[in-house]
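ok here's Reverse transcriptase domain-containing protein:
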Amino acid sequence: NIANQLTSQIPPSKYTAESFLQNRIQNNFVISPISPIEVNSIIDDLKNNGNTVNSIATHVLEESKHIITPIICHLINLFVQQGYFPDNLKLGCITPIFKNGDKEKVNNYRPVCSLSPLSKIIEKVINNRMVHFLDDFNILSKTQFGFRKKHGYRNGTTKLHR
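and the structure:
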């Protein structure tokens, strides 16, 4: 087995992977119940891209949010409690977007997947909770710039330059 061969070639170390973690977390990551205010805010921020598969259109959610928000909250809370994400919410519509060059070559296109608005709402709720947890307990390294608000690649370049 190649994995065992490679592992046997690694010299022993007095350090463990855990010893490199700067901030050990004593708290568990728990997702508190989602509120209608949070869902309304997320619906307000949704972009209407029009490419949905068997889904409620974004503008319908926006126009009926005063009625549908409590139902969405209840569903999301059930999904979180049960650790379940419905298969039909995993479906997306893939659109090829032309980059540049010869339009006849497949390599000159990049795929963009549009998910249903409900899937985006659930994703945003979970993302918000995870980001708050990571920030509250100072888990991410100060040199983690990607995928963080107010931490673009330029921040990393500036830090590297200093």
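+1. Residues 58-82 form the longest helix (25 residues).
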